[in-house]
Amino acid sequence: MDFNTQIAANKVRQILFLLSVIALGILLFLQMTFMLSAFLGAIALYMILRKPMYKLVYEKHWKNWIAATILMLISFLVIVIPFVWIGYILVHKISPMLKHPELITAVGDKIQHYLNNRFGMDILSESNISKISNTITSFVPPLISSTANALMNIIITYFLLWYLLNNANKVELWLQHHLPFKPEHRQTVITEAKASIMSNAIGLPIMGAIQGVLAMLGFWIFNVQDPVLWGIVTGICSFIPFVGTMMAWVPIAILSLANGDVNNGIGQIFWGLIVIGLSDNVFRMIIQKKLGDIHPLITVFGVIVGLNIFGFLGLIFGPLLISLFLLLVKIYINEFATTGVATTNHIQEE
């Protein structure tokens, strides 16, 4: 190595320029992380409204701003208001419970006592009940904390959505020209990203809404106190694979049995197994066929990550982030790793 060789001045300027851009980008990102859920929400809403926007503008010949306004109002009524209502109920119903975690422990003790006396099952030890109580009390605050920033997130989301809808062609053309992929892969990237967004942003909430409403109806029929709250909790539990809604209705049914309400407790069990269980299989199959399948592990880790980052909205955006991450990994392999492997094999054959 020749230590007398100097780095070209142009290279130094280029490196300093890139370092400045990266440093400024990191600073801006750290200061704007609170907008991340709003940004993802705007993209998800844009993907949902993109097709009707094009129909109104290019087939019905509406003005851009009129079509965008109408669609944004409809989305606000159909999507935002239900989420705000759910958040309101969670805050006002669950917050008081968090102030008295011993109530959760008492319910667990009663369920354990019933199972032990009736079936000889020692499922919930005192340590397990304590862990469950701690898990619940640590799980709920992220859901509640997101409501504090809900109004600001909604304002930012619709501000970004207005821009996206009114400049759809410019935004999509810019993306197609500036995505750092080969031309033949750019459309694939956009198509798969859209499918991932639609599957997570529409499929999961629809499943949660269907099962939550069915659970709410069952809780009302079988005299469960506050069926609306527990229907919402059941709908949220539907995001969790493998156990899903059983995390909500099974303890409630057992608690009814433990309280001596045998008929309603048995009714809740049959309702959960037949109505809620069958609805999960039937509607999930239909949604997967229409919007695409989501691997259970993506949902599991997505919910965990999403709750920490976004709070309540993390139930949707968490799986979406992981899906997009896996998509980018797949694209990287197709763009670079595959080429490298092919080149290596070619050299070996020669």
What does this structure look like?
With 350 residues, the protein is mostly helical. It has one domain (34-340). It is 84% helix and 0% strand. It contains 13 helices and no strands. It has helices at 9-31, 36-59, 64-98, 102-119, 126-148, 150-166, 168-178, 183-221, 227-237, 246-258, 262-291, 296-310, 314-349. α8 (183-221) packs antiparallel against α9 (227-237) and α10 (246-258) runs antiparallel to α11. The radius of gyration is 25 Å and the shape is elongated.
Summarize the structure.
With 350 residues, this protein is mainly alpha-helical.
Low-confidence stretches: 339-350
Could you state the order of secondary-structure elements as H and E? Answer: HHHHHHHHHHHHH
Secondary structure: helix percent: over 70%
Q: In total, how many beta strands? A: 0
* Biggest sheet layout: none
Tally of discrete structural domains: 1
* C-alpha Rg (nearest Å): 25 Å
Q: Treating each run of at least 4 consecutive H or I residues as one helix, how many helices?
A: 13
Average pLDDT value? Answer: 76
- Terminal CA distance: 32 Å
Strand content: under 5%
Anisotropy-based shape: elongated
Structural class: mainly alpha
